[in-house]
Amino acid sequence: MQLNTIRSRLKIIAVSRSSVASLSLALTLFPTAFGQELFVEATDIAPTEVDRLYVRGLQFLARSQTPEGTWPDRSYGSEPAVVGLAIISMLAHGDDPNFGPYSLPIRRGLDFIFKQMNPQTGYIGRSMYNHGFATLALAEAYGAVDDQRLGPALEKAVSLIVNSQSSNPFGGWRYSPESKDADTTVSGAQMVALFAARNAGIGVPETAIKKGLGFFATCQMSDGGYGYTPGSSSNSARSAIGCLVLALAKEKNSRAFQAAAKYLKTAPPETNYQQYYLYYASQAFFHISSEAWSTWNRKNIKMLGATQNPEGGWDGQFGSTFATAASLLSLALNYRFLPIYER
């Protein structure tokens, strides 16, 4: 499983198993050659424009990280969810995670997440928001980062998600593992983490996926969008989450996905939780169609280019670390190195 995240790269460059030195050199000198081709769809956007924004954002995160693996902005910079998203944004650029320019920040961040994990239960942090995004980071790092702790930790984290769902009458998740209610935002984080873990080779019960999809079905409204809980009104951010969950479940031909896609293409962008919306909307539009993705991506690049700080980060209500990591991940579909970012 340690080769999981380079499996798509091997389709592009064939390397003899015995040529370990050659493979290491190629990963160092030509990292973008191993991912899906940058800007597969026809576009007038220059790849260098995206990479300039992305690298400045990564450099901001690397500079501002503390030795403990957290970030000093407000209280959110020390939350495992935010640390996890920052790690994923570094992995998504395609640099060597063990020896590349962001290997130290990645290692520090993972060390922090491991310390936040309950060794008995596998629970990470103080909420299921933290647990879901931190588990996603473990799943994306597994197979790419040389750390023997990743496999056992990921298995424990997945078990916590599955066990929490099994005692939830809605088949979803909310703020704590013991919650007896559910919402689409917390549940979306757990579902994406489960799909990423399954991509990495970790056993995820199909019943857990189906129960999660069943909960999301109760939250889809007549307009095709998704509400926070069953019966609540739709909005763009939650609809992007629902759309992505269906796409990762390979349900893109379903009526539910088509209805969610139609809603999302006409709904106004979320402004109250802008970066949170960007993170999920980028992935949703990527799965809706090449045309929808290209249109959305062009606008997103223009907007992020106009709002990036001189230091390289972005501002947001949850602090600059979350805002920067989420903004970068909304651009990361242009690279497509991570397994969760493949169509």
Structure report:
The chain is globular, with a radius of gyration of 19 Å. It starts with 19 loop residues before the first helix and ends in a 12-residue tail after the last helix. It is mostly helical and 343 residues long. The protein has one domain: Alpha/alpha barrel (Glycosyltransferase). Helix 5 runs parallel beside helix 7, helix 6 packs across helix 7 and helix 11 runs antiparallel to helix 12. The chain has 13 helices and two strands, in the order ααααααααββααααα. A two-stranded antiparallel ribbon has the order 1-2.
Write a concise keyword list for the protein shown above.
343 residues, mainly alpha, Glycosyltransferase, two-stranded antiparallel sheet, globular
Write a concise synopsis of the structure shown.
The chain is mainly alpha-helical. It has 13 helices and 2 strands.
